[in-house]
């Protein structure tokens, strides 16, 4: 039986800056071929994956919309047990706990990695402009009207 481990000295959290690409590292130990396995990266909902690799291919039809076009596995490295997730164009909303679930059909393993995101976050803001006065108040004599 194989087990899933977080590579790079058991690093359990990864830091990324908004807008950059990041790898959430995970690999099988011992290093065995994972091409025929199911690899599922998800956050809160197992059935709504960030990325799903199943039947020898990535299945974007099952993926959360906000991650479409931004995630990948290192497909050529699955043969050596690398099931790391590549996440492109990191957003503030990407931060949180990620789970990598690998199922061989005979056994399954899960590992957790926290993604911390730093940088410029998009926050709503208001801009106040100084507008010119619509009318000028002018001194007036009794009985006189002021026009703008």
TrEMBL record:
Can the keyword Membrane be found in this entry's annotation? yes
Cell membrane keyword on record: no
Q: Share an example GO biological-process annotation for this protein.
A: T cell receptor signaling pathway
Q: Which InterPro entries match?
A: Ig-like_dom, Ig-like_dom_sf, Ig-like_fold, Ig_sub, Ig_V-set, IgSF_BTN/MOG
Q: Which molecular function GO terms apply here? A: signaling receptor binding
Cellular-component GO terms for this entry:
external side of plasma membrane
Give the UniProt keywords, A-Z.
Immunoglobulin domain, Membrane
**Entry-linked PANTHER family:** BUTYROPHILIN, BUTYROPHILIN-LIKE PROTEIN 9
What protein am I looking at?
Answer: Ig-like domain-containing protein
